[in-house]
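Discussion board: Methods & Data

I've been asked by a reviewer to show the raw model output for two of the constructs in my manuscript, not just the figures. I'm not sure how much to include, so I'm pasting the format here to get opinions. Each protein appears as its amino acid sequence followed by a line of discrete structure tokens. Is this the kind of thing reviewers expect to see in a supplement, or should I convert it first? Here is construct A:
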Amino acid sequence: MNATRSERVAHLHTNLEWGGGETQLLALVLRMHARGIFTVLATPSRGALYPRARRAGVRVIALEEGGAARRQMELDLQEFGLTRLHAHDSGSTSLGIRLRRRLGIPLVLTRRVASPLRRNPFSRWKYSPRRLDAVIAISGTVRDVMIQSGYPADRIHIAPSGVDVAALGRIPLEPDFRAAYGTDFLVGGLGRLAHKKNWMLMIRAAEILAKESFPVQWVLAGDGPDRAGLEAAVRQAGLEGRFHLLGFRADATRLLRQFDLLCFPSRMEGASVAVREAMAMGVPVAAADSPGVVESLAGHGWVVGCDDPAAMAGAVRAALRDGGLRRQRIDGARRHAQEHYDFEHMVEATLDAYSRSAP
């Protein structure tokens, strides 16, 4: 029997919200199942992932609060004859360590953030190589941070965050959406309205180009704690009618397809799925020089300093004015996404990491 097909994997997940990590996990579980690999997902029933996974036909166990519920979950998992545990967030890492001890099988963690591990005693305990048999990093950037935090390099494997390249290529342009912004170029941003996303860089770039009367409209889709401050900054910059905060959008990927350019000013990313989606669907990207984003773009976009609004304005101007250069970078980005970021590459790299950290 193929060693990969003989794997029986429990994916552990505790986050309640829906985001890029949950999209990646659901895609991984579905594609592993399609390859004949036994998979079960343990996640809170009150979380956003649970109903979506159930609707998709995934085998799901509810992670409920309380000792009795957790003991029952452990008994349920024992019935499956598992060969591996795969944790996908901080909370599930703690759970996985306990299950690893109870079930006597290896524990792998997917690490998605490029922030160093905390140095407090609990963090050192949780991320110790004695308790984690391997780490799967979503990018070389994340791998480097883990190495700098003291985790052994030979036990860190890379499985790049993936996108559905074929499906993204089928998303249509929607003239009615574009019509609301006139004939100007449309530059957009997607993401949580939080400090690390650095949306003020986008607003300051918009202010510079507005003073030049450059024909561009800006939209920002997302919500979060910085919304009121960003709204105030838009007003103070005199950008009402030109910079539009759309709030949370469940159709963010469809929205991305409508942009002439994605502006991605984040200061810290392990590897942005939004950037990789833009690359796959032919939307050019102007981004701040977060290492994970620079790695994702691989030279096929415009990159500026994260505190340099004049440079961001210049990148937007250059990308929209120079059609030939824009087309060249779009074509290169799409090829790179097809060759490196398709979901199937993520699955193959994950299974390879399993095989190299054999039970």
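Construct B, same format:
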Amino acid sequence: MTAFHHRIRRICACIIGMVFLLAGMFKLLDPVGAGLVVEEYYKFFHLWFLIPTAKAVAVGLALLEALTGAMLISGIWRKLAAVLASAMIVVFTVLTLILAVVNPPMDCGCFGEVIHLSNLGTFLKNLILLGLALIAFLPFGNFGKNKTRKYVSFALSAAGIFALTGYSLARLPLVDYTDFSPGAELLASKDNSIDGGDEYESTFVYEKNGQEGVFTLDHLPDSTWTYVRTETIRKKGLRNDNVPILSFTDSTGTYCDELATEDNVLVLSVYRPLKLKGDSWTKLADVMDAAANAGFKPLLLAAATPEGMDTLSVIVPDVRARLSSRLYYGDFTTLISLNRSNGGATWFNEGQLITKYPLGKLPAADELLEMSGRDANEVMLDDSSRGRISFDALLLYVFAILLLL
């Protein structure tokens, strides 16, 4: 085998590795969303009894995918990496062929919430990977020798991958790619209807050296710029079909969506009420009381019926009484999209989503008081920018370690 052939095989293996690494890390960014995708696969193949394992399987597969990608890029354990990558590519190709033929209304979830592909597009992507695998791994053997330092680069990159996994499981995604992302405005807070009309977009004015610049949430300046103000501009004749609708009702079935569009609203969302223990309900009641004292309007949205909530014996009577006047009812899909944490909190200001908190890190009373006195848009920009920068830095770190070390 010539040196040129070896080089071509390594290039193809690295391309496969980059796809695997990105796909795995994008899914590890949002384990709850990845679990929902696995649930859809279970339902499609009528494997209902496996649904409780969906999140664990999703995280395990995403870790395997990311680590296999790191092995392919670094060039260590080449035979093992070739076997793992080939097996996953073949299985994914068969699965996506079935999806391309049947074309059910579901997302393959290959890249989590970051990139969405059609069923046919996903199948074609896997066909390309299959072709690259044939070049990279056949004939099986003669993969060449890796450099000893590559074990170090793999270990360092694997540490970053596991750190992302641990953070995502304990907290919320560093970057939110759902419709309910920071900066999103609820439909009821806009001056247009879902059927069309004018639309409005928030832009952010920053200043540097006496000059002002206008930026959007997706394209913010670096830290040398100073935030000045937020402006809303009209985009005439445009329509956005992804305007988030936070719909919920009271115990009588009356829709109360407009309550979430007032000045400062703290929405606590529970999409699996049966999973919450009694002390968690007490914690939610305490946060709601503190939010009310800080000037927020607290709302508790549960994916349940009034009758279902009445049967939850883990909620003690005094806590139930504190929650009842602020309790409303939404659907599972909306609430799990709103906040990936079961019992998490979401801050809205005049219908604009500012930031989110997981159940394990709900704001304390003093933090709520501080929040009420801060500029909501500044909080949104700080939090969303910090998450994006952290995830981008992690991706850069992993790829730099694997390619340069």
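Answer (T.O., handling editor elsewhere):
This is acceptable in a supplement if you add a one-line summary per construct. For B, something like: Residues 199 and 235 are 5 Å apart (CA to CA).
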